[in-house]
């Protein structure tokens, strides 16, 4: 069966299920904020472009959809018509649509306050501009790189490397957590200069070479950041600075099981505590990193990414109250049409993602289970509370406080390491 987080497909589509479906009027209302419209009819993909996306986002997103159609047998992907937002942030606020269904808009991320439908972002097929390969390729490389240095032999500090100049206050604040002559919060913060890196051939940006710290920090950019999956892939203990946005798979992760939550309002002190706690409880801290890496291996393989796309489009199609049609200004897209307009650098990355038809059926999508979502949210809240308690108690080596493995499905909780208890 599909990973549990696929239940969020039902949750994300709930506003339209509750209102009787997706009307053409609602679809057209979303056009103003869409970068492009996609119509899949009879297994063929048509795209109508409205504005230029940043870099090659649109190209790689449409390429991913073409590979989806190629991957599964004819008819597996239903006739469907949807709008796509390729900006960083979701657009439609939930509070504005209490009495009617919102316009349906697919996007790279969502949030608690918005209703845009989260869909896999372009980087799963590559990010040519910064020389990052497709997820399957990068994941394998990072997993291999993570095996070169065991967790206990890594630098016992937190690592972050990125661009703080993206209009995100959280990243600006993170710079203050770097080590100085007067204070040390246990964090090594590096500013990534992408212009300089591009001029040097990105020789200092190989993701598989960045698994040398016990702890890896994730801080959002202008919205969610594609860096999250690469950070988690190291098997280090991921420290997530309280995010506002989520991509399609982040809601499958639980604090204290897959990552350690960092308080945004007291960031440096929170990082300092997380590092000290982890160094005092190495087995528990290492287990958190291992759980995250196992999640990526099992539940975020490219097989599962394509399955998520397929099931999302299938569930979306069930809600359509109109017959999908080819838009007047749309172009029929095939792989050769995309590669024909791609620049040499982009073409290299596109070619590296070509895939043959799937040899296995997609995972089995369970029916909507609102109880699962409630249990997940309750467990998430409980684990956040436990993390706050751990910080307040200022745990030291040898005390009796223990950390338990979270459970969403109601099974008996298992203990992490020899000294495990929830506090």
Automatic annotation (TrEMBL):
Organism of derivation: Selaginella moellendorffii
Span of domain Glycosyl transferase CAP10: 76-323
Keyword Transferase: yes
UniProt entry tagged with the keyword Transferase: yes
Descriptive protein name: Glycosyl transferase CAP10 domain-containing protein
Compositional bias per record (Basic residues), positions renumbered to this chain: 412-423
Pfam families: Glyco_transf_90 (PF05686)
Cited SMART domains: CAP10
């Amino acid at each position: 069966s599909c990973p549990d987080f696929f239940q969020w497909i039902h949750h994300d589509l709930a506003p339209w299920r509750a209102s009787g479906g997706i009307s053409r009027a609602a679809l057209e209302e979303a056009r103003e904020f869409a970068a492009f419209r996609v119509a899949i009819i009879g297994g063929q993909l048509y795209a109508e472009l409205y504005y230029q996306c940043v870099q090659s986002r649109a190209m790689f997103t449409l390429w991913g959809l073409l590979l989806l159609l190629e991957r599964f047998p004819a008819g597996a992907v239903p006739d469907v018509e949807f709008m796509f937002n390729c900006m960083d942030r979701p657009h439609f606020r939930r509070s504005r649509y209490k009495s009617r269904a919102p316009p349906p808009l697919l996007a790279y991320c969502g949030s608690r306050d918005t209703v845009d439908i989260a869909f896999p972002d372009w980087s799963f097929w590559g990010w040519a501009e910064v020389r990052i390969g497709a997820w399957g390729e990068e994941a394998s490389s990072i997993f291999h790189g993570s095996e070169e240095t065991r967790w206990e032999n890594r630098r016992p500090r937190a690592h972050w490397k990125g661009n703080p100049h993206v209009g995100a206050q959280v990243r600006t604040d993170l710079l203050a957590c770097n080590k100085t002559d007067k204070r040390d919060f246990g964090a090594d913060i590096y500013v990534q200069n992408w212009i300089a890196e591009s001029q040097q051939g990105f020789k200092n940006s190989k993701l598989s070479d960045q698994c040398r710290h016990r702890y890896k920090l994730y801080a959002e950019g202008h919205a969610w950041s594609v860096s999250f999956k690469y950070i988690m892939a190291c098997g280090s203990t991921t420290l997530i600075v309280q995010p506002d946005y989520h991509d399609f798979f982040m809601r499958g992760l639980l604090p204290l099981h897959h990552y350690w939550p960092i308080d945004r309002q007291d960031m440096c002190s929170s990082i300092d505590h997380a590092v000290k706690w982890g160094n005092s409880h190495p087995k528990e801290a290492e287990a958190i990193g291992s759980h995250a890496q196992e999640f990526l291996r099992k539940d975020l393989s490219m097989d599962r990414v394509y399955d998520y796309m397929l099931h999302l489009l299938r569930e979306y199609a069930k809600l359509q109250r109109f017959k999908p049609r080819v838009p007047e200004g749309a172009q029929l897209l095939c792989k050769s049409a995309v590669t024909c307009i791609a620049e040499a650098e982009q073409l290299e990355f596109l070619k590296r993602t070509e895939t043959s038809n799937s040899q296995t059926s997609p995972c089995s999508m369970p029916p909507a289970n609102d109880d699962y979502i409630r249990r997940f949210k309750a467990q998430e809240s409980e684990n956040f509370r436990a993390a706050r308690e751990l910080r307040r108690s200022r745990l030291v080596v040898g005390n009796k406080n223990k950390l338990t493995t979270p459970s969403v499905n109601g099974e008996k909780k298992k203990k992490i390491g020899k000294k495990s208890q929830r506090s």
